[in-house]
């Protein structure tokens, strides 16, 4: 077994890299960073035009019928350049769920627009008082004839201020156990009673807390059966948990190597000639390799028709915690200059070390904290009791 890419996928990667090199200019990168918003309509539609938006989707929906490895190459290359694709990713994720369990009416209304970049969908799972316990949702949806009335709030609704819809988890039955009284909805964010307030993260990203006050939507916006929202949500969480953040480690490694080659130590020799420098860089390189293999195992399993129930969380935990360790180690290696801010002209590597250090801390929370991932590994992978 090996995880080397075949020539066709390598060629696909080369074309994608050329497109990204052309579109992600220094000016574009700085504008996106200073906005705090990981989305750009023109960039997303450029991916659609070039066939890089959803290459693994069937051609009938606007995809290219490409395999799982081509799909993975797109994810890796987007992370490598820190492309503003988070809203595109959440849109594709929800579109995949609608394609699987949505009504024909919902599919007709959403899928074509989502795959063209004309429709965007944010996620509405976490709540201010529930943290990682998503099933403890208190946002309520009450039936009123053919409609639902929604009241509550959601935390970390990233891109909720610009998206067209939010994929919302709401409690519809308080008499059932918490996992059994939930229902999923696709809520139009231009509905009366929806409000988004900004929340700024340590990495400079804008997320939101969103409020829902007597928001009325028709039953046609429900996804899946009533009180079966946890099963629907599981489709998205499975996709999120099988994520890998190794490409960000690759970025860190590339900047560390470049700094070590270009910077002179006090004795006049390049930093790269120093044993400690080489040791730390080598450690990052080893964790890059492990992160890549863990993620590609998940892709291989998916291609074989297997579900990476525990393997996905393994990939997520290792790669994000490696990114935190490596970012801290490289900042310590470079010294106080490493803390000069992103895009500061005098900062080493334009402040990438400082930004990656801040960014790394959030990755251990995104898509479920490390504690949640370890619980999944223990219970579903190792068969340990709760």
From TrEMBL:
- Any keyword Oxidoreductase? yes
Question: Where does the record place the Acyl-CoA oxidase/dehydrogenase middle domain?
Answer: 122-209
Record SUPFAM superfamilies? Acyl-CoA dehydrogenase C-terminal domain-like, Acyl-CoA dehydrogenase NM domain-like
Name the cofactor(s) required for activity, per the record. FAD
| Segments traversing the membrane | none
Its family remark reads: Belongs to the acyl-CoA dehydrogenase family.
Q: What protein name does the entry list?
A: Acyl-CoA dehydrogenase
């Amino acid at each position: 077994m090996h995880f080397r890419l075949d020539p066709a996928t390598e060629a696909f990667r080369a074309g994608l890299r050329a497109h990204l090199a052309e579109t992600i200019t220094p000016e574009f990168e700085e504008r996106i960073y200073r906005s705090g918003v990981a989305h750009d309509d023109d960039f997303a539609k450029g991916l659609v035009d070039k066939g890089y938006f959803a290459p693994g989707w069937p051609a009938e929906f606007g995809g290219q019928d490409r395999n799982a490895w081509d799909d993975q190459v797109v994810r890796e290359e987007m992370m490598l350049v820190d492309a503003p694709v988070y809203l595109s990713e959440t849109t594709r994720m929800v579109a995949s769920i609608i394609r699987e369990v949505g009504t024909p009416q919902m599919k007709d209304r959403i899928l074509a627009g989502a795959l063209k970049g004309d429709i965007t969908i944010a996620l509405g799972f976490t709540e201010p008082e529930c943290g990682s316990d998503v099933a403890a949702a208190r946002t309520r949806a009450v039936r009123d004839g053919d409609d639902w009335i929604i009241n509550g709030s959601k935390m970390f609704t990233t891109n909720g201020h610009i998206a067209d819809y939010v994929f919302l988890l709401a409690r519809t039955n308080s008499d059932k156990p918490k996992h059994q009284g939930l229902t999923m909805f696709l809520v139009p964010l231009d509905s009366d009673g929806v409000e988004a307030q900004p929340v700024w993260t340590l990495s400079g990203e804008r997320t939101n807390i969103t409020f829902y006050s007597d928001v009325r939507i028709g039953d046609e916006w429900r996804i899946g059966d009533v009180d079966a929202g946890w099963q629907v949500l599981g489709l998205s969480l499975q996709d999120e948990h099988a994520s890998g953040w190794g490409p960000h480690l690759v970025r860190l490694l590339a900047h560390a190597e470049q700094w070590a080659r270009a910077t002179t130590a006090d004795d006049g020799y390049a930093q790269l000639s120093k044993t400690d420098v080489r040791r730390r860089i080598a450690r990052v390189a080893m964790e890059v390799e492990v992160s890549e293999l863990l993620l590609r195992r998940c892709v291989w399993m998916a291609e074989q028709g297997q579900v990476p129930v525990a393997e996905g969380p393994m990939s997520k935990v290792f790669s994000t915690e490696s990114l935190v360790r490596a970012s801290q180690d490289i900042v310590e290696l470079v010294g106080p200059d490493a803390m000069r801010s992103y895009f500061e002209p005098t900062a080493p590597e334009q402040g990438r070390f400082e930004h990656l250090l801040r960014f790394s801390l959030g990755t251990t929370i995104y898509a479920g904290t490390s504690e949640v991932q370890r619980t999944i590994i223990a219970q579903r992978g190792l068969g340990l009791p709760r």
